[in-house]
Input
Amino acid sequence: MFGEVPGRVDPRAAEAVGRRWSRAKVLLSLTWSWCAAELVVSLLALGWALVAGPDLPLLGSPKQGDVTGLVLVAVIVLLPMPLASWIAGRGADGIDWRLKPDGWLMYGAGVGFAQALGLWLAITYTSLPLWLRIAVGVIGLAVPLLATFLARRAITGEPLREVGGSEFVLVKGLRSPQGGDEDSVKITGDALRLSVRTAAARPAAQPSTKDIALADITEIGVRPSASCDGAWAQLADGRGASLPEGDVVVIRTRTDTQLLPADPELAELLRARAALHGREPARIEDWT
Output
């Protein structure tokens, strides 16, 4: 159903990426199968309710509340999976949804919740005790949520450099004076996008962004931050973001130099990702 590893893969990384994708694919398949099973059980419960109870629409005198409730539950049961498939196939960025592990958790939570809710509502028409109905709803949500969480971790777990030679979309947090995950770099198959909103004082109201095409990167290196370093990013409100202490990843293109407050692993990840475009960026050795 989910096929081979999506996108391009560097032959040198094929084994590690394939191993991670195999684990993720099993867990994504479990999520889909579980939600599909919830759909089937929900429909069976609704069908049983229609033919079994004397107060329901098909037997005795119809009650408008029963009809409306059953139709609403049927919509909740039937809509989530097709809707999620439709949304996944129409991403604004044009990137295959299978390459976006951060989105898997969102789909697992959204579809899993909707299907669990539909199942819980469907079995309210049965004679099952309340505690069992609650347990069914909780388990119905927990399984797809946990499965997609583990699928995401199969791809995004450390060491991230193992998936550098693929096109999986990765988001890496950057160090900031205020800590947290306010600043980050998003790495796709073709570019990296910086998102920055912190400075030494208060954060900016909106993040500022900058895109760098991977094909334009010529050199990558790592060095300690220095007191003479200027602002490494311009915030949306016009302030400059100064570098915190620690390692700095230096990215050079033909026209620009970008500093990133990040660990050396990010440099290796970017070097492997940029190599998908035919040439691995050189290592910066001379800092004079």
